[in-house]
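Why should sequence recovery work at all? Because a backbone constrains its sequence more than one might expect. Tight turns favour small or flexible residues, buried strands favour hydrophobic ones, and helices have their own preferences. The token representation captures these environments compactly. In the example below, the structure is given first.
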């Protein structure tokens, strides 16, 4: 199917698919069925485009006429002779009418469904036929295959392939062209009695008027009242009541479908696909919407609707299904949360279309004064059937359709469950839904609010249980044990909260009848007393029930009733129902949840501004008998001059200093060095000014990059590289030379400043080079961050302009906090500030700019993961887990503590959890809510909370007389918060304290709270103690000057103008931060946050994003330095009884002890353990832990420092978990202060000690004494083999006795004068929640996940179907993303909702990435680091490693002669001939080969170092930036190169032809055939016998031709193994000049080179050269070129031109030449090199006037040291040339490259060329840079044995062996073995030659490398050759390699040898070896032994080489 994303395994059974496939192929010869495996695996999802082209494919193309053209007149074919033509019968005479066939058993083949056909001649009945499902549309009118396949149900004839043919067969007598859309009208199904009845309309698109037909079909009377199927719309996709109970008010019933419920146009993929189980490691399997978005044109072979529309939504509600319905709000389960429009008064307008259609007399009058009388506003949930019209006082009643939409979506079966087999799976019946609703309401607690999500899940689970066997049939077999990641159907044990016996509904045995429903419902309701009232048996209509309910409510008879369920079950009509909510708490909660968040805030503002809340505020001010708050405050203000002890239990400074002792230095905590306070410690006022009071524990370190951030940055980078590497050409990283960026943040001033601060301190700006290193100020950084408010438009427009003009800059748009604004621009008003992201980031300019990449960063990505998302699942990066199987992967110094850890802390149970609710606050708030029913609960709760804070401040300040009475007017939690806030700063010498976060979403309420608290603080004289900060997103941070000075002192800031701009800079400032704003906008909070007070956040908006983002405020990085690596949870202290906790109540001692014996009740929790700071997640001992020895040391005892008793009977019930052994029993007091526990104190203490005694005793003992009892911490906490590893989400710690050091808290020895801030840094803040949210968040789903995760992920998305599985606990982030991509659709006001309709085949934007990670985890640091490393990578991409080595072997004395003037442009041949040839090899790559003897050269004393073969020494390279004239490999694709590389629109890519070319050569002995691969675009370089005929020659220019844009010489590049990395893209190097470039490749690599370089000419070497070396390639290139030169000459002669004028030069270039340079002699500082194009180099060389005189030219190899000494002034030299050669094939005709050579072939060739008298010239004014390429190349030959393909290490001595011996043969060419053998063992072979330069080895006619210690003297035996004078030279050896006839005995006698010199003769076989010895009369002077004959270690068939050694006599 050409899908780029793997589909998931179909849940249909394999055999069934196979069967269908076979059957379909038998049935059809036009529509080829899809292969079985593609049906099984390629399940994809359907595009939902509503006006794309795909929409119209099915009908319009079917009959060739556009839908708006007049119908073609149609003439039916006459029926065959003698057949039946009666209406209602087929031509075979069988009855087809539904009335006749209703009870007959019909044989419907699999894959077919029964359809009712409307015959124009029989309007009153339907004809039955079976049609292949694939040719019918789904319930949205989509995805019908074109064409038809049907069977006749009368005569059984099968395989009708055309509807025309079929309509003839069944006698449809038509006057128009038969169209299936017109005549296939109804689905048919069997009801419970087994009768075939008419079902829903088939939803052909574009056929309107369906509502009328549907209505009339109800009253047609086919369904009598006694055959009512118990379930509504069992499997009927298009109407919500078709075929169910006939109802006198049929029409209104149908019509009662408010528009907001139309979720018909939303994909509902089936519940049964386990979408993730088949995915491979890197391939998400459900990837959301896809490329094949609709059926293909015409009769596409093998396309099945399953492939793209597998399970489309079957919406039971279908108000007109034209594309206009897209604009209505899709509502499913709980989606109307935000829409009050439907329920607001006046009610008549909000009731949708049901109101006008209600029959008269059925209206309900709402009584006056309802709200006043009942103090509540009842909520009516529409249920089944139309709600009667409400009249009268309608504004005091709310109507909600939430329940109705839940009912509907629960009856909308996904397609996969429909029409399977004889008994279709039925949805839940109406009766069952109502009964389950009653069950659900009954089990709700009195203060719980019904949640539609819960009800929906109950429906789903009940439905699954009742259909378990049928569902399983279509499921993959999976047991609950294996369910792990499959989220298929679960087997629920019980429904949540339902009594066990009610769990399986009666439906599973037999259907529930309407008559049973009322009494069953009443039975269920009876269990809860008056809580739920069911009105059923006497009620005849909903109107009657509603009227009764309202009158009962007015009479006060429903005082204790929360819900009234009204059920109407009249015989012969459909069951109707509705639910009236009458509980005060529930009504308020539901009413408030109907506001959208912005409406809710407006309502609060309205109540505050109109003064409605004044009465409440006044009420709260009164403290009953204790007077009035204001008067008490006034009294406090009067006597505020006297110093105040903080509270009665506060000890004096002197007592404190007595107890102040050091903690031992042995502890692991890094911050133990607390400064001691002297005995007479100054008062707080003095100490603020005294410089010596500093806190040694204070440090701020939030700016460092953590290892996990580095890892995420690298993941981001690898995703960007993956986009660039993909074949889609969406991002060309190689073309960018720098990075620029813009960070978009929400419109919060603090977030803006915080991002600027992070950016400024990250160093990214310096790294990007945009600013100088020193002068980067915060102002500069602000240019790169923009708030998404109205100013953003201009900034982004300018960025788009900039990106357009700077195509070489890559722009990264970082959209931080990306879930904040996802509104569609078309739905948002400009003043709301929403929709900006859509308008700017989704604009066409940004989308299409190839150099803009968007990175969305968010903690809550769910809203961006819908079916219509723009982000590919492959471009999502999820924050990794720091732990894998308890292994710390990143070795972080901090541990992240987030939402899941908070939840974990509520579960452990043994101590006070970090997340809790405040029951006394809740009870006070709910009492006031009842008293003030008209006020919004946020107003009431905020008022109460601020009142509590004010009273607590008064009580804790000690300035109010009789303050103990004040305690009862606040809650214990609030008092503790305030006391700890006040006392913390007093305990630290530098006055460090902590932050209390007070979250108040409403700006108006927050401002009021700020004023109120500030006033109380002022009156109590506490202005110096702590700051109160109003955090308004629209305003900058504002704090008092004294506090600013304090912070500046702590941070050592000198700048007088500095003010803190972010909350992070408030580290350690004691303060209350009131954070307002509808939602947090990404503000980070300091580590000193200790309490996160969320008691007044709204409980109405239960979306996952909303909840998690509020909880995310408490997310925290806990220090984790000394924590053992296997411990999964974040570390913290044990419960410490620090003095900062003041007594919370007067009787706290008794309370503490009472509470020990019982699990704490929620109301006691606050008292029992004031230090809620960090208890539970760390210190709780898991009761299941097998290692009970590690007894924990926290306890619920001792809430206050004064309580130091420790009962001796400690092992009674005081620990709620297994008892540790006696010596592990602990005193919490002691434990918290020091690790050095004396052994004596580990025993239970019978006597009560004062704390000071305990402490002094503790510290008097040396630390080591504890070790014998139990080992040190590191030993104690090493992983225990039997300890079960805890999952990373469970942050539990198993404590040993010596934990205090392991609990990373910076520990002070004294509880008193220590820095509370330093202790707090090691533990996360406590979170206080509203009770309602606490219950929801801490409850868990059946999947084990917190309940909140199963909520709708975001307000602007909707669930695609109720039949979705639950999220599973085992899911990874990627799987969650795929889940949301499958099961959520964006609402119309979501910015992605338009993403389907743009007609693009893929909806993913290719350059969009999504980074998601939990809140406060460090995402900003990660993406900033990513920007840095991306910039570095782009610079690195523009740099290459170039060999940078100095030339070798220059003798000490420099030559003094200057031959050419330094500025000579070209060499003079006459001067060149006078220059001596430099035999010495200077190329550093040859520093390990034999030197060539040259009399003038004196080697340096030490000789060349021997390079160890086994230790490959890395050659020296330099990293150089690519110039604009560089050669590139395959990874470079810029726009200019596209055509060059073959992406030319004129030529199909890869369009090239293979041409054979044959020529003979003497040395090869036979004809050889070469192949040229010539792209169409390059054919003009060749001549053919006729166009497209035989290749004749490669065209060559004339010497006289010259063009400024042309290179005359063909360039040949031999290459192997470097198809990706070879530098063959010469487009830029040639500066656009036309040139002929030929790659010379081996035959076996031809295909891969052709794939990567489709537009390059290839010369393919013959097969025999597959194993050959570089010598063979050069040999063939040269010989072919000469052969071609002759062909061209003869071609020119035939054309009448001069033959000798053809250009005879070719270029032999290495595949690693990357750049070329020229020397500029006129540079200011002496000669300098600069980059030039290859075109310039070649044109200069080709223009040399006497070029024809030279046999070979070349250029220098570049070195950063340039030319040294005297040589730099000589522009030309004569010596060895390498790497880049200009070869004259004409002059060098008789000198061939040695085709057998693997190494040093160029040295050998140059020596032979020179000896033949040809001129060799090196242009020193040019140099070539060679790139280091570690892959491939001709030097990489592996020597391996014949036996195995595995490379084995074979030493050089094994490369040869004695002939005929048994030896390990090697699978390596013989010549290579010989060369390697000679290189490595020459010191044994030529012992006299080693390190003996003056006595070289004489090598005749060839140069072979004998290793660096041996010198070789090359001589040529050819007559007239140029040789070194050998007179007076004594040679230490003679090397004869394949000696030919020019070598004669007389020639050899010219040379003299040392005695004992070695002879080595090499031949191709043993006989020629003997012939050579005889012919050259060698035995006269050389002595041979039999044992001196050797062969290379090759098998006979591999033709080994033989050699013979001898000694000189």
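From this structural description, the recovered sequence reads:
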């Amino acid at each position: 199917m050409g899908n780029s994303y793997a589909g998931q395994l179909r849940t249909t059974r394999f055999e069934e698919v196979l069967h269908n496939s076979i059957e379909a192929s038998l049935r059809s010869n036009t529509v080829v069925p899809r292969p079985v495996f593609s049906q099984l695996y390629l399940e994809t999802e359907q595009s939902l485009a509503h006006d794309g082209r795909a929409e119209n494919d099915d009908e319009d193309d079917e009959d060739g006429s556009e839908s708006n053209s007049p119908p073609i007149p149609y003439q039916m074919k006459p029926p065959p002779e003698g057949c039946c033509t009666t209406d209602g019968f087929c031509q075979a005479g069988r009855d087809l009418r539904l009335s006749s066939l209703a009870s007959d058993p019909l044989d419907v083949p699999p894959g077919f469904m029964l359809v009712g056909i409307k015959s124009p001649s029989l309007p009153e009945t339907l004809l039955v036929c079976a049609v292949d499902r694939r040719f019918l549309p789904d319930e949205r009118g989509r995805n019908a295959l074109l064409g038809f396949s049907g069977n006749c149900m009368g005569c059984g004839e099968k395989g009708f392939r055309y509807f025309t043919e079929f309509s003839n067969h069944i006698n449809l007598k038509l006057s128009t062209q038969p169209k299936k859309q017109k005549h296939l009208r109804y689905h048919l199904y069997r009801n419970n009695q087994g009768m075939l009845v008419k079902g829903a309309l088939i939803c052909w698109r574009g056929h309107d008027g369906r509502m009328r037909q549907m209505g009339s079909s109800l009253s047609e009377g086919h369904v009598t009242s006694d055959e009512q199927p118990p379930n509504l719309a069992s499997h009927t996709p298009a109407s919500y009541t078709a075929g169910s109970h006939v109802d006198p008010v049929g029409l209104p019933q149908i019509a009662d479908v408010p528009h907001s419920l139309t979720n018909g146009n939303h994909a509902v993929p089936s519940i049964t696909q386990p979408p993730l189980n088949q995915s491979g490691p890197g391939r998400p399997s459900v990837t959301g919407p896809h490329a094949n978005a609709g059926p293909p044109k015409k009769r596409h072979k093998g396309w099945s609707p399953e492939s793209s529309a597998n399970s489309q939504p079957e919406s039971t509600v279908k108000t007109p299904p034209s594309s206009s319905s897209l604009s209505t709000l899709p509502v499913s389960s709980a989606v109307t949360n935000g829409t009050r429009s439907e329920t607001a008064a006046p009610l008549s307008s909000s009731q949708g279309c049901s109101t006008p259609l209600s029959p008269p007399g059925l209206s309900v009058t709402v009584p006056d004064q309802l709200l006043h009388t009942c103090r509540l506003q009842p909520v009516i949930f529409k249920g089944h059937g139309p709600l009667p019209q409400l009249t009268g006082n309608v504004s005091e009643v709310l109507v909600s359709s939430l329940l109705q939409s839940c009912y509907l979506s629960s009856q909308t079966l996904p397609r996969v469950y429909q029409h399977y087999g004889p008994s279709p799976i039925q949805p839940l019946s109406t009766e069952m839904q109502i009964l389950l609703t009653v069950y659900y309401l009954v089990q709700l607690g009195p203060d719980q609010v019904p949640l539609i999500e819960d009800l929906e899940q109950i429906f789903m689970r009940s439905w699954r249980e009742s259909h378990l066997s049928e569902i399983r049939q279509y499921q993959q077999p999976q047991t609950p044990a294996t369910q792990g990641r499959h989220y298929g159907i679960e087997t629920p044990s019980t429904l949540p909260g339902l009594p066990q016996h009610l769990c399986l509904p009666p439906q599973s045995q037999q259907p529930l009848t309407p008559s049973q429903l009322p009494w069953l419902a009443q039975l269920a309701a009876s269990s809860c007393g008056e809580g739920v009232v069911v009105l059923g048996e006497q009620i005849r209509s909903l109107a009657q029930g509603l009227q009764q309910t309202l009158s009962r409510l007015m009479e006060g008879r429903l005082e204790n009733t929360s819900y009234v369920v009204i059920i109407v079950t009249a015989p012969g009509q459909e069951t109707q129902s509705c639910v009236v909510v009458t509980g005060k708490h529930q009504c308020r909660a539901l009413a408030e949840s109907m506001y959208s968040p912005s409406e809710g805030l407006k309502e609060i503002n309205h109540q505050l501004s109109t003064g409605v809340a004044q009465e409440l505020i006044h009420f709260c001010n009164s403290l009953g008998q204790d007077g009035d708050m204001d008067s008490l405050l006034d009294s406090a203000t009067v006597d505020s001059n006297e110093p105040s002890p903080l509270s009665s239990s506060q000890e004096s400074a002197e007592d404190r200093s007595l107890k102040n002792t050091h903690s031992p230095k042995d502890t692991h905590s890094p911050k133990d060095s607390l400064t001691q306070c002297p005995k007479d410690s100054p008062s707080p006022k003095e100490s603020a000014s005294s410089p010596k009071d500093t806190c040694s524990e204070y440090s701020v370190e939030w700016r460092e990059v953590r290892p996990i951030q580095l890892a995420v940055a690298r993941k981001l980078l690898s995703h960007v590289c993956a986009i660039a590497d993909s074949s889609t050409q969406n991002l060309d990283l190689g073309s960018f030379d720098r990075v620029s960026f813009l960070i978009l943040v929400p419109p919060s001033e603090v977030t803006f400043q915080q991002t600027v601060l992070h950016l400024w301190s990250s160093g990214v700006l310096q790294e990007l080079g945009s600013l100088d290193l020193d002068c980067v100020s915060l102002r500069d950084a602000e240019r790169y961050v923009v708030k998404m408010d109205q100013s953003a438009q201009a900034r982004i427009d300018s960025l788009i302009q900039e990106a357009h003009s700077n195509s070489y800059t890559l722009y990264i748009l970082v959209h931080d906090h990306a879930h904040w604004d996802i509104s569609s621009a078309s739905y948002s008003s400009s003043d709301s500030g929403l929709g900006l992201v859509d308008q700017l980031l989704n604009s066409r300019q940004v989308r299409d700019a190839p150099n803009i990449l968007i990175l969305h960063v968010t903690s809550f990505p769910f809203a961006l993961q819908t079916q219509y998302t723009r982000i590919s699942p492959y471009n999502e990066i999820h924050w990794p887990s720091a732990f894998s199987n308890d292994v710390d992967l990143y070795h972080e110094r901090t541990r992240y503590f987030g939402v899941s850890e908070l939840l974990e802390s509520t579960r452990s149970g043994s101590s006070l959890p970090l997340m809790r609710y405040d029951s006394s606050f809740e009870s006070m708030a709910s009492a006031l809510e009842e008293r003030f029913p008209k006020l919004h609960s946020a107003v009431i709760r905020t008022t109460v909370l601020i009142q509590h804070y004010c009273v607590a401040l008064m009580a804790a300040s000690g300035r109010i007389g009789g303050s103990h009475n004040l305690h009862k007017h606040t809650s214990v939690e609030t008092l503790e918060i305030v006391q700890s806030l006040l006392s913390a700063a007093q305990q630290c010498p530098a006055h460090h304290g902590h932050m209390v976060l007070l979250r108040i979403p409403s700006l108006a309420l927050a401002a009021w709270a700020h004023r109120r608290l500030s006033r109380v603080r002022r009156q109590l004289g506490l202005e110096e103690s702590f700051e109160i900060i109003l955090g308004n997103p629209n305003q900058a941070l504002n704090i008092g000057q004294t506090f600013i000075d304090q912070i500046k002192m702590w941070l050592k800031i000198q700048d007088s103008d500095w003010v803190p701009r972010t909350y992070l800079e408030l580290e350690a400032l004691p303060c209350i931060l009131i954070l307002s704003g509808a939602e947090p906008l990404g503000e980070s909070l300091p580590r000193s946050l200790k309490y996160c007070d969320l008691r007044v956040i709204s409980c109405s908006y239960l979306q996952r994003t909303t909840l998690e983002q509020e909880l995310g405020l408490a997310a925290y990085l806990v220090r984790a330095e000394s924590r053992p690596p296997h411990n999964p949870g974040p570390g913290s202290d044990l419960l410490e009884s620090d003095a900062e906790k003041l007594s919370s109540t007067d009787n706290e001692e008794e309370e503490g002890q009472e509470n020990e014996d019982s699990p704490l009740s929620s109301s006691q929790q606050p008292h029992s353990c004031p230090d809620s700071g960090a208890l539970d997640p760390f210190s709780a001992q898991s009761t299941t832990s097998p290692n009970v020895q590690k007894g924990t040391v926290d306890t619920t005892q001792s809430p206050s420092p004064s309580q130091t008793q420790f009962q001796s009977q400690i092992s009674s019930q005081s620990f709620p978990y297994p008892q540790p052994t006696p010596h592990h029993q602990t005193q919490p007091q002691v434990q918290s202060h020091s690790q050095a526990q004396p052994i004596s104190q580990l025993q239970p203490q019978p006597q009560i000690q004062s704390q000071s005694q305990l402490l002094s005793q503790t510290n008097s003992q040396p630390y080591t004494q504890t070790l014998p009892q139990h080992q040190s911490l590191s030993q104690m906490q090493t992983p225990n083999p039997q300890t079960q590893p805890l999952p990373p989400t469970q942050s539990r710690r198993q404590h040993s006795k010596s934990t205090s050091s392991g609990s990373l808290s910076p520990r002070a020895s004294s509880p008193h004068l220590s820095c509370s801030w330093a202790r707090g840094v090691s533990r996360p803040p406590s979170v206080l929640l509203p009770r309602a949210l606490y219950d929801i968040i801490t409850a868990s789903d059946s999947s084990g996940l917190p309940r909140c995760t199963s909520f709708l992920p975001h307000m602007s998305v909707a669930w695609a179907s109720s039949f979705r599985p639950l999220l599973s606990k085992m899911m990874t982030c990627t799987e969650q993303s795929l889940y949301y991509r499958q099961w959520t659709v964006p609402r119309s006001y979501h910015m992605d909702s338009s993403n389907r309709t743009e007609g693009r085949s893929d909806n993913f934007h290719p350059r969009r990435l999504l980074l998601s990670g939990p809140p406060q985890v460090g995402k900003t640091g990660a993406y900033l680091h990513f920007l840095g490393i991306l910039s570095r990578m782009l610079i690195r991409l523009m740099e290459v490693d170039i060999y940078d080595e100095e030339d070798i072997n220059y003798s000490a004395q420099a030559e003094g002669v200057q031959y050419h003037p330094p500025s000579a442009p070209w060499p003079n041949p006459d001067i060149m001939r006078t220059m001596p040839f430099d035999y010495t090899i200077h190329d550093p790559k040859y520093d390990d080969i034999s030197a060539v003897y040259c009399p003038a050269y004196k080697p340096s004393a030490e000789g060349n170092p021997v390079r160890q073969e086994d230790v490959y020494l890395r050659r020296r390279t330099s990293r150089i930036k690519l110039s604009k004239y560089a050669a590139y490999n395959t990874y470079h694709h810029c726009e200019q190169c596209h055509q060059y590389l073959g992406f030319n629109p004129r030529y199909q890519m890869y369009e090239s032809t293979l041409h054979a070319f044959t020529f003979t050569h003497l040395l090869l002995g036979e004809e050889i055939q070469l192949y040229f691969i010539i792209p169409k675009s390059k054919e003009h370089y060749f001549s053919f016998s006729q166009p497209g005929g035989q290749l004749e020659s490669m065209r060559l220019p004339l010497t006289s031709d010259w063009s400024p844009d042309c290179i005359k010489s063909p360039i040949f590049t031999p290459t192997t193994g470097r198809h990706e990395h070879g530098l063959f893209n010469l487009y830029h190097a040639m500066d656009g000049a036309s040139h002929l470039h030929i790659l010379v490749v081996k035959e076996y690599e031809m295909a891969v080179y052709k794939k990567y370089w489709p537009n390059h000419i290839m010369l393919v070497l013959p097969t025999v050269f597959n194993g050959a070396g570089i010598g063979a390639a050069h040999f063939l290139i040269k010989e072919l070129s000469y052969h071609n030169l002759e062909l061209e000459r003869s071609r020119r002669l035939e054309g009448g031109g001069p033959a000798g004028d053809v250009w005879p030069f070719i270029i032999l270039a290495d595949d690693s030449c990357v750049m070329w340079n020229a020397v500029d002699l006129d540079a200011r500082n002496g000669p300098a090199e600069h980059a030039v194009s290859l075109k310039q180099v070649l044109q200069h060389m080709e223009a040399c006037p006497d070029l024809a005189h030279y046999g070979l030219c070349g250029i220098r190899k570049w070195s950063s040291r340039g030319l040294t000494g005297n040589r730099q002034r000589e522009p030309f030299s004569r010596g060895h040339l390498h790497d880049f050669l200009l070869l004259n094939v004409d002059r060098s005709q008789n000198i061939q490259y040695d085709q057998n050579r693997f190494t040093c072939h160029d040295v050998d060739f140059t020596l032979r060329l020179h000896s033949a008298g040809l001129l060799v010239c090196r242009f020193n004014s040019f140099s070539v840079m060679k790139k280091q390429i570690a892959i491939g190349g001709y030097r990489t030959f592996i020597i391996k044995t014949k036996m195995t393909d595995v490379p084995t290490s074979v030493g050089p001595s094994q490369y040869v062996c004695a002939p005929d011996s048994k030896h390990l043969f090697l699978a390596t060419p013989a010549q290579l073995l010989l060369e390697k053998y000679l290189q490595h063992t020459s010191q044994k072979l030529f012992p006299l030659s080693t390190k003996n330069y003056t006595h070289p080895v004489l090598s005749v006619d060839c140069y072979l490398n004998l290793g660096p210690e041996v010198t070789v003297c090359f001589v040529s035996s050819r007559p007239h050759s140029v040789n070194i004078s050998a007179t007076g030279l004594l040679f230490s050896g003679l090397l004869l390699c394949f000696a030919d006839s020019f070598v004669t005995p007389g020639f050899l006698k010219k040379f003299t040898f040392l005695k004992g010199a070695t002879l080595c003769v090499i031949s191709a076989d043993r006989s020629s070896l003997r012939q050579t010895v005889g012919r050259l009369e060698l035995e006269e002077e050389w002595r041979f032994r039999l044992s001196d004959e050797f062969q290379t270690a090759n098998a006979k068939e591999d033709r080994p080489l033989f050699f013979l050694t001898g000694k000189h006599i």
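A few observations help interpret the result. The radius of gyration is 45 Å.
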